[in-house]
Amino acid sequence: MDEGRRIFAAESAELLEEMESSLLSLEGSPEDHESVNSLFRAVHTIKGSSGIVGLDPVEAFAHIVEGVLDRVREGEVGVGDDLIALLLRCRDHMAALIDVSLRDETPEAAMNALEAELLSALGTYLPQPKAAKPQATPASREEAAPEGRLAESEQWHISLRFGPDVLKNGLDPISFLNYLPKVGEVVSLTTLLDRMPPAEEMDPEACYLGFEIGLRSEQEKQTIEDVFEFVREDCEIRILAPGSAIQSYVNLIEGLPEDNLMLGEILIKGGTLTRRELEEALNAQFGGEAAPAGTAGAGVHRLGDILLKENMVHPRVLDAALKKQSQAQARRAIERQTIRVDTEKLDQMINMVGELVIAGANVVQHAARVRDKGLMQSVDMMTRLVEEVRERAMRVRMVQLHDTFNRFRRVVHDIARDRSKEIDLFISGGETEMDKTVIEKIKDPLMHIIRNAGDHGIERPEERAAAGKPARGTIRMNAYQETSDIVIEVSDDGRGLDREVLLRKALALGMAREDVSYTDREVSRFLFEPGFSTAAEVTNISGRGVGMDVVRRNIESLRGTVDIISEKGAGTTIRIRLPLTLAIIEGFLTSVGDAYYVIPMDMVLECLELSERAIGEAHGRHHVNLRGSILPYVKLTDLFSIKSSVRRGAEHVVVVRYAGATTGIVVDRLYGEIQAVIKDMGRLYRHVRGIGGATILGDGTVALILDVKSIVQVAMEQEDARFGRQAE
Amino acid sequence: MDIEVKKTGEGVSVIVRAGMTIYRAHDLKEAFLEALREGPAVDLDLSGSPEMDSAGFQLLWMLKRKAQAEGKTLRVRHGDASRSVLDLFRMAEGFLS
After folding, report:
1. Which residues contact A12 (CB under 8 A, 6 or more apart)?
2. A3·B53 Cβ contact <8 A
3. Of A227, A376, A514, A567, which is least surrounded by CB within 10 A?
4. Which residues, at least 6 apart from A468, have a Cβ–Cβ distance to it below 8 Å?
5. What is the distance between the alpha carbons of residues A87 and A122, in angstroms, rounded to a whole number?
6. Which residue of A1, A3, A180, A188 to mutate against B (max B Cβ within 10 Å)?
7. Whole-structure pTM value
8. What gap in Å lies between CA A684 and CA A553, rounded to an integer?
9. Alpha-carbon distances of A566 from A295, A538, B10, rounded to whole Å
10. Which residues of chain A fall below pLDDT 70?
11. Alpha-carbon torsion (A221, A223, A224, A226), positive or negative
């Protein structure tokens, strides 16, 4: 996808969200002018920018919606439930249309039929089709209060001076020039780069482009101006209608930074003025006022007066023409406190930081060997700084959960409406931050969980009343940080999980055994088994056949965990736990034979020696007595079929804890804490049990990162296999 | 290397395989200036560059202007991308080699 489209995709997504929240807001308070305005602006902007990137179907549809919203804005149409429902459907259709168009596909028949239906419904809010557009050219000729002679040319003159930050802000003059042919015939175009400083000083990312354009067009001035709507703040735009007073062109020339004679030539060559017209006007001018011609200030001042007097230029365009670039920039700097960053650049930077961490570790190692005090101090300082850079780099990718959570308001709203239930959504902890990519991946699981809560959790108002609950059900989304994890909770006060029903289903599906007694928690975990959701429960909303097992897998692929806590009749809470950073973890370095293994530090409890005596006491079983409790262990030599390089009795046990289960991992040697930059190992290794990635040590050796969860499972399975007992 | 500058018998050759866009603008500028420093004639090959945006166009213009100022020869071999931007800006004449 080219750059313009990529930006359009991102910005239109935001605008569509804006549209949705405005509509939901209006439902509650139909008199809210602020929401009406932001609704209008959102659609208006989508219309304009979709035209610029060439997505005509989107532009056409948005145009109609904008028409209706304009009437709402003017007070000619009232905000009612029907209109809001219609506009929500229109918003959804625009989202789908944008999606299809960006993929260069044509909409299917179903989509076209829907659009026809929506257009017809929108039509009822619009007045009768307007009479044919009044002739643009004669009208402006009338408006032009002649001050001196009028130019003969029949073309519009557009003068553009793009601001230096246009490109950095993601726009490109090329898009606008490509769009112009849609509003008329580009008769002449001159590209100006006089504003570019000498090569050494020029900023390769800044824009120095200017254009003088002659355009033949039947359109109204507004339409031509609208071409530049999207870049209005980043560009000086002056538009002169055909047959403007010659004096206005003169003033235009004087108001522009380039040399007057050159500009005059450009206008003549471009067909906007004839040589005679220009010469006569300049003669008249010199014979007239004392204001120094050629000084930009004087020129601009007079340009302003004349243009306003002739009422030829829309005030907005005049603003853009008169305002100095720095003013506009200063204002923007205050309003906008964020910049768009290409995520690829960010990823590259974070990668570099990872490399820096490794290189730093290397330095530490060498420094330790040298044992120079001054060096150690410097290295200490360096390590601290690298650590801080690392943290800040990770934090750049952190985004507040607030927006993500808010998107679910619409989901809850729709479910409530579709199922004739009453549901309120309460959100807390929205200011909690998470890595942007993790948030992207958590959206789908959360969506499914919320839909479940609305579909199956919250009961109908009658049922709730009968149970003594308030008719309005509540879903709560909460997020908070707990040590190095982010916890997200979705709770509802609905009917909760019925243990008996679940158990029966699990037995029927063969997932559970008759003779075993399961804890409540174990019963709730059946929900996460593939195939557990029955056809009867897969509704058209949750309907993609996505079960809780996929939710669990998605979350686990982010190295997170998900739990269900439920009480029959009272409600259910789904708790998701996600590690705070993906790429770098604190690890405990160990080795077995020649191979190095890293164990995530947050799961390590303690280390022991695996003495001869301890082994003896276990009578052949793989466990030790840890202060009175049994600690099962896994030997990495067994798990990975490698040879130990220390004798029996000199091994160590690293005690780890995962989701409540404690196990020991037996290794040869212990080395202590390191920072490990997790390197993905690729698909080849995905099925290797016990490994969750790799990292590169300070001296370049590769160490494998242990996947404690599967090791714990293996330990349990080994115990089973050895002694044919139930899993604990 | 997707932006290659090398000395040839007659001067300096610059081969751009990367997009002539804002994303490589700094690298492109550096390469262009280096090429001008190295020889009396620069041969710029854009035929393999898949994209050009305004930043790329500006750099091309910068190169031409500086070459002219220093009395050096600039020859440009265009690709579809650069040709279409030049056509849009109606600057093709200035760059026909």
Report:
1. A46, A49, A50, A98
2. yes
3. A514
4. none
5. 9
6. A3
7. 0.42
8. 19
9. 77, 20, 80
10. 1, 128-148, 281-338, 483-484, 533-546, 581-584, 659, 680-687, 719, 722-728
11. positive
Judging by beta carbons within 10 Å of its beta carbon (0-12, 13-18, 19+), is residue A60 exposed, middle or buried?
Answer: middle
Residue A468, token pair as written in the block: 């003594």
Q: Rounded distance, CA B87 to CA A297, Å?
A: 34
Q: Residue B75 CA to chain centroid, in angstroms?
A: 9
Cβ–Cβ under 8 Å, residues A164 and A325: yes
The tokens for A111 are 């989509």
Q: How far from chain centre, in Å, is Cα A64? A: 28
A195, two tokens? 């504003």
CA distance A118 to A96: 14
Closest CA to A213 of A162, A144, A285: A162
Q: Does A3 touch chain B (CB under 8 A)?
A: yes
Q: Which of the residues A188, A205, A340 would you substitute to probe the B interface, choosing the one with the greatest number of B C-beta atoms within 10 Å?
A: A205
Strands A623-626 and A629-635: antiparallel
B62 with A196: Cβ contact below 8 A: yes
CB contact under 8 A, A207 and B54: yes
CA separation, residue A298 to residues A256, A291, A301, A304, B19 (Å): 11, 7, 5, 10, 43
The pLDDT, as a whole number, for residue A540 is 41
CA end-to-end distance (rounded Å), chain A? 53
pLDDT tens across B36-89, in order? 998 899 999 999 999 999 999 999 999 998 988 888 889 999 999 999 999 999
In one-letter notation, the amino acid at residue A560 is G
Compute the distance between CA of residue A238 and CA of residue A160 in angstroms, rounded to an integer: 7
How many angstroms separate the CA atoms of A137 and A239, rounded?
14
Task: Say which residues have a Cβ less than 8 Å from residue A489's Cβ, sequence separation at least 6.
Answer: A476, A477, A478, A479, A573, A574, A575, A576
Question: What are phi and psi for residue A215, nearest 5 degrees?
Answer: -130, 125
Tokens read off for A511: 């997932």
- In this structure, which amino acid lies at residue A74? E
Token pair 């879903």: residue? A475
- H or E stretch including A14? helix A3-28
Which residues sit opposite A66 in a β-bridge? none
Residue in B29, B51, B91 closest to A204 by CB: B29
Pairing of strands A595-600, A702-706: parallel
Contacts of A253 (CB under 8 A, 6+ apart): A260, A263, A264, A267, A299
* pLDDT value of residue A3: 73
DSSP conformation class of A274: -
- The ipTM, to two decimals, is 0.94
Q: Do A178 and B88 touch (CB under 8 A)?
A: yes
Q: Which long-range contacts (CB under 8 A, 24 or more apart) does A196-201 make?
A: A196/B58, A196/B61, A196/B62, A196/B65, A198/B66, A199/B29, A199/B33, A199/B62, A199/B63, A199/B65, A199/B66, A200/B33
The residues, any chain, with a CB within 8 Å of residue A585's CB and separated by 6 or more, are A579, A600, A601, A602, A675, A676, A678, A705
- Distance, in Å, from the CA atom of A627 to the CA atom of A648, rounded to the nearest integer, reads 22
